[in-house]
Write a structure and sequence with these properties.
single chain; 229 residues; alpha+beta; Phosphorylase Kinase, domain 1; two-stranded antiparallel ribbon; 3 helices; 12% helix
């Protein structure tokens, strides 16, 4: 799984959606906190109100200038060079994200209203390397991405898990303005999923519990990754 860092008030002037509303490149305060054990069983795609992620339009598949390489360092550097003039949230294909962050997870089911997924790698602007707290970001949309922010149903951010993080320790739920934030740690990543208020809370939980490796969910991802260093 992967790690997500969503610090609502501190992640930039865009808050939860900081950077995610930018059309980079061609394409395109919680009152309570509870912790529950994670589920080892993916949510069934036949459940009412959800559809399989494989059925969505993954907006950045085959993005112009895609780095089709198994080498992690080449892909990370290439994505930064491709989009650095447009900010630190850079549109990236699912394949590029998988090479940059091998083992990253994504919900295997999403609300039935969803039709599109956007995907970005997130960089430290000063160094040009992946940001540790938020290394990747995904938007789940009910409308053509960036055509109407009201059509954004959920945001998943993934970052590197602290070395002291408890792996598989559970899912933390926090009520935030205009929705629900769920966070968890697994496989060296820390994840945070934000669902807008109109998504039923149980459906947001189902998305988290269905998380599975990205290479089995998005098209044209499978690749043998060669880690740098």
């Amino acid at each position: 799984m992967v790690a997500l860092t969503l610090v609502l008030a501190a992640c930039g002037e865009g808050g939860m959606f900081d950077g995610l509303g930018e059309r980079s490149h061609e394409y395109v305060e919680g009152s309570t906190t509870t912790t529950l054990p994670t589920s080892a069983t993916a949510a069934p795609t036949s459940s009412p109100g959800v559809v399989a992620s494989q059925t969505l339009d993954w907006a950045n598949v085959g993005i112009e200038g895609e780095l089709v390489s198994p080498e992690q360092a080449i892909v990370i550097s290439g994505v930064w060079q491709r989009g650095r003039d447009e900010g630190r949230f850079i549109q990236a294909s699912p394949r590029e994200i998988w090479v940059a962050l091998p083992g990253i997870d994504f919900p295997s089911v999403v609300p039935e209203e969803a039709g599109w997924v956007t995907s970005q790698l997130v960089f430290d602007a000063a160094s040009g390397i992946l940001d540790g707290e938020t290394s990747a970001a995904f938007g789940i949309w009910s409308v053509v991405p960036y055509s109407d922010d009201e059509g954004r149903l959920a945001v998943l951010r993934v970052g590197q898990a602290p070395t002291t993080a408890e792996v598989g320790g559970g899912i933390t739920s926090s009520g935030v303005e205009d929705g629900l934030s769920l966070s968890w740690t697994d496989g060296g990543f820390r994840y945070e999923l934000f669902c807008v208020a109109q998504i039923p809370e149980e459906m947001c939980w189902q998305m988290v519990e269905s998380a599975a490796p990205l290479d089995g969910l998005a098209p044209e991802v499978s690749v043998t990754v060669e880690a740098s260093g």
